[in-house]
Design goal:
alpha/beta, elongated, 12 strands, 8-stranded mixed beta sheet, 36 helices, single chain, 4-stranded antiparallel beta sheet
Length: 925
């Protein structure tokens, strides 16, 4: 093989993988990031590869100059991909219009997504699929050369793909964005075409002029053997992609669901496949059938033998983070460490998987005049297996039998494929075949007796990504032994749930999108998605979820229609429905989250049963583009932006769509966090949000860890009287009492930064866009460093000894209406933030200073918003609990007794939470 051809096909693989990664990001902005949408795109892409391999493989046998055809394909792919953003923009108009017509029919919407992916991705995929058989046809002259040369081309293509994944995932997409990355990939296509030109000028194909028919007959297999080899290859292709789907889930649970983690996994997976094909170029193979059968069995054995290491991946990743932090190693070295861990698991089995296609291609190629057809059809069947492996494993096996079942099915396919081939591999000595079967049986028996529970550590793990330090200096031996870094068993005790132990009850829901766990301990529930705690029914999470519902609906008290992005625990949804909204939609990407809602039902007012609520399983970006309704309030509570796909909910395009879906005067509430985030990340979020919502006010929770940004197109005319009216709704009051808020002043202490000061926080700089999702990559760095921003806290007027928060506005309002805020209201507000551990001492001191300037008045408060106790007979459960304590502190025993009686009565009737509210006049009971 000429060096120029070798380099050309290396660049072809480089460009192909870059294009695949870029397409997934381009299409995600429109059709979404649901598992079904992504599977549809991948199926179309790989199906196109199969069609192209079949079609151009046949054509290559008729072409006098297949290299010239190869060059044309590379150039067309480059031109098409450069035009793809414009093509997508045009097709998107049709998709959005048609999807909005069938919005309430999810099956039809999915069909449209599939057709949309088909219309944009199929053509270049078909052209890419034709490149391998065309070049193979040009350089292979005899069937005997097939194994070595096909393996060489396959090796180059795979190593190019590894390089493409590295460049796209770690360099061009983070630094430049999508469009420059497309240009780089297209340039690689063009250079590959130019490198092939010297061979194209020699139109004489390297086909042997003589064909030894006697030798061919001697080396031929029975027709059934060729069929079995192809069936085994399909099964191997299925298992290969099935293993990849399984390992994607393993990586998400071990390293976190970050783009970098998935890129590292993809690179190591393809590296092993490339090495497997490379080895076939270095050794003489006289018995390809036997070797094919053995490699399939060894692949299965390799995965089974690696399960103890897979179980320990999150523990090793924790040690790796500790080592990186203690040594001051860079983020890049941390990624290299993760790659090394992946290689330890994947190297042996993927090497074996990589040998499959070249071996079957050499078995099938039995006549020089049909080499292109044989190679093309073999590649097509292998790719067809890949398509089935992706679709069945991700969309069927994962949701029905989970991670362990999916793993076992694919291991079983590898074993069956190996046994099928060995059964007809008469060229291989019987003792070799019998030995392979015996070793496989022994490994299976050992695994069945010892290793089947390895997935429990992964599936029931939680919060281990926060582990960044070892035992403190000077710790004694006992403390060191108990630290999670000391041993795998100590790590398991700290970061793995143990169902039915320590009063822990666990619900596990494995589905296409994620591993969803709800752990209920002593009545409190935590929602854990891919090992990250995303919501809980107590502590700071509860406060954030409630304020995320109430803050925007206080700011827009006339709201009748509501959209909430992300269901989570349902607590935000349930709290939002305490308000007199007439209709609410929820869009949730994970069906598993809804299936475990029963664990949160008593905490979210049985939100899913509320007749005003409709729930949609969809990606929020796709949903917003196609929903035919508009809303008064949109609340977005996605997960952390370092999670793959989440940063799309922080792009200017998403905010622009949301702005168009708001009714005049509507507000958009956005949750984001300052923990594990740099100041640059916070400014980027605010800068992007501000580009569509120029008026932003910020609320803060959990000592400024969680931030709620409420944005609007026009200035919000906040009417203090309407705030009081809203607070006085029994349903709203009782819900806020859950977090110790007894009056409006306490509620307003959560306001952190007014709009005029938010503008001061926003500097000149880039924004987070769909074409360049800076936030995703900046957030990953923040997660690794563990450093937190304090930008919002530093901008709070209270801490800057300035006036400007909603508390100050409320003080002025109360003075104007002749009922100044009583010191007792401030005292309970300060007690609220103190009891919740909400703010630092400086904030409490600033509020206390505000209280000192309030005149002392003895007249009683006139309404609950102003600190008056509610009627005990009308109070809800939480309100009764809260006011019993307040009345006792104020030495009002009769009032305390009345609230205690009300509390006990509601508890006896099982009404610790109010019934579903259908109108603002309903009782909180």
């Amino acid at each position: 093989m000429r060096p120029s051809i070798a380099l050309a096909f290396l660049l072809s693989g480089f460009a192909g993988l870059m294009h695949e990664i870029i397409w997934s990001k381009l299409l995600a902005g429109l059709i979404g990031t649901t598992a079904h949408a992504q599977a549809a795109v991948l199926a179309v892409y790989m199906g196109g590869l199969a069609l192209g391999a079949m079609a151009f493989g046949r054509r290559s046998d008729r072409d006098t100059n297949p290299v010239l055809v190869y060059m044309v394909l590379e150039v067309i792919v480059a031109i098409y991909c450069l035009a793809l953003p414009s093509i997508l923009a045009a097709v998107a108009v049709v998709y959005v219009w048609s999807a909005s017509l069938v919005f309430e029919a999810p099956q039809l919407k999915f069909a449209l997504r599939f057709l949309f992916a088909l219309s944009t991705v199929l053509l270049p995929a078909v052209l890419m699929g034709g490149t391998l058989p065309l070049l193979a046809r040009a350089i292979i002259g005899k069937p005997q050369q097939t194994r070595r040369l096909v393996a060489a081309l396959y090796t180059l293509n795979n190593f190019g793909a590894v390089l493409g994944a590295a460049v796209a995932g770690f360099i061009t997409l983070p630094a430049l964005g999508i469009y420059p990355s497309i240009v780089i990939a297209a340039a690689a296509n063009v250079v590959a075409a130019l490198l092939a030109w010297p061979l194209a000028r020699d139109t004489k194909r390297a086909i042997s002029t003589t064909f030894d028919s006697a030798a061919a007959r001697q080396n031929a297999y029975p027709h059934s053997t060729y069929t079995i080899a192809l069936i085994a290859l399909i099964m191997s292709g299925f298992a290969a992609m099935g293993y990849e789907v399984v390992f994607i889930r393993v990586i998400a649970l071990a390293f976190g669901s970050t783009t970098h983690s998935f890129t590292v996994m993809l690179m190591t997976f393809i590296t092993g496949i490339g090495i497997g094909s490379l080895l076939l170029t270095r050794f003489k193979v006289n018995r390809p059938l036997g070797l094919l059968g053995v490699t399939q069995l060894v692949a299965a054995i390799g995965f089974l033998a690696a399960t103890p290491l897979m179980e320990r991946l999150p523990y090793f990743a924790s040690l790796l983070r500790i080592a990186a932090h203690e040594s001051g190693a860079s983020f890049l070295y941390y990624q290299l460490g993760k790659a090394a861990l992946c290689l330890m698991v994947l190297l042996v089995p993927t090497i074996c998987l990589g040998a499959g296609f070249p071996l079957v291609a050499s078995i099938q190629a039995r006549h020089p005049d049909r080499i292109g057809s044989y190679i093309g059809s073999t590649y097509a069947w292998n790719t067809l297996g890949n398509v089935l492996g992706v679709l069945v494993t991700s969309l069927v096996l994962m949701p029905t039998i989970g991670l362990p079942g999916s793993f076992h099915v694919n291991v079983g396919l590898s074993i069956v494929a190996g046994l099928m081939v060995l059964g007809v591999a008469e060229e291989t000595a019987p003792k070799v075949r019998f030995g392979a079967v015996l070793v496989t049986a022994a490994v299976l028996a050992t695994y069945g007796g010892m290793g089947r529970d390895w997935t429990d550590t992964l599936r029931y793990g939680f919060s281990h990504m926060t582990m960044r330090s070892g035992p403190p200096e000077g710790a004694d031996a006992s403390a060191i032994a108990q630290h999670p870094a000391s041993s795998f068993q100590a790590w398991r005790r700290a970061f793995v749930l143990r169902p039915q132990e320590n009063d822990t009850q666990v619900l596990l829901q494995e589905e296409s999108h994620a591993n969803v766990v709800v752990a209920t301990i002593r009545g409190g529930a935590r929602l854990i998605v891919n090992t990250k705690v995303d919501a809980s029914s107590a502590g700071g999470d509860l406060e954030t979820q409630l304020m995320l519902a109430h803050a925007p609906l206080f700011m827009q008290p006339d709201a009748k229609s509501l959209l909430i992005v992300g269901y989570g625990s349902g607590i935000t949804v349930g709290s939002a429905l305490r308000h007199p909204v007439e209709h609410a939609d929820v869009v949730e990407i994970s069906d598993g989250v809804l299936k475990v809602d029963r664990a949160f039902a008593k905490h979210n007012y049985h939100a899913l049963s509320d007749p005003r609520l409709r729930v949609y399983i969809d990606d929020a970006q796709s949903f917003l583009q196609t929903v035919p309704r508009t809303y008064d309030v949109i609340i977005s509570e996605p997960s952390n932006p370092w999670i793959s796909g989440i940063a799309g909910l922080f792009t200017v395009e998403f905010f622009e769509i949301a702005r168009r879906k708001l009714n005049p005067g509507g507000v958009f509430a956005l949750w984001f966090h300052e923990y594990d985030q740099s100041d640059d990340a916070i400014r980027l979020i605010l800068r992007t949000f501000h580009s569509q919502f120029p008026h932003i006010t910020l609320f803060a929770e959990q000592q400024y860890k969680d931030i709620i940004a409420i944005g609007s197109v026009q200035p919000l005319g906040i009417d203090a009287s309407k705030l009081e009216d809203r607070f006085d709704l029994p349903e709203v009051r009782n819900d806020l009492a859950r977090i110790g808020i007894s009056n409006l002043t306490a509620f307003l202490t959560h306001h952190a930064v007014p709009s005029r000061l938010v503008n001061d926080m926003i500097d000149a700089g880039p924004i987070n866009s769909a074409s360049h999702q800076l936030l995703e990559y900046i957030s990953i760095q923040g997660l690794f460093s563990g450093h937190s921003s304090a930008l919002v806290e530093q901008s709070n007027p209270l801490l800057r000894q300035e006036v400007g928060t909603l508390v100050d506005g409320y003080i002025a309002h109360r003075n104007n209406v002749g009922e100044p805020i009583r010191p007792r209201e401030f005292e309970t507000a300060i007690r609220h933030i103190t009891a919740r551990g909400h703010y630092q001492q400086e904030h409490r001191s600033a509020l206390t200073a505000r209280a000192r300037v309030v005149p002392t008045i003895e007249t009683p408060a006139t309404r609950p918003a102003r600190g008056a106790p509610p009627d005990p007979e009308q109070a809800g459960y939480y309100e009764s609990v809260l006011w019993q304590g307040l009345a006792s502190e104020e030495n009002q025993p009769m009032l305390a007794a009345a609230f205690a009686k009300r509390r006990d009565a509601l508890l006896a009737r099982g009404q610790t939470l109010p019934a579903v509210v259908t109108s603002p006049t309903n009782s909180s009971e």
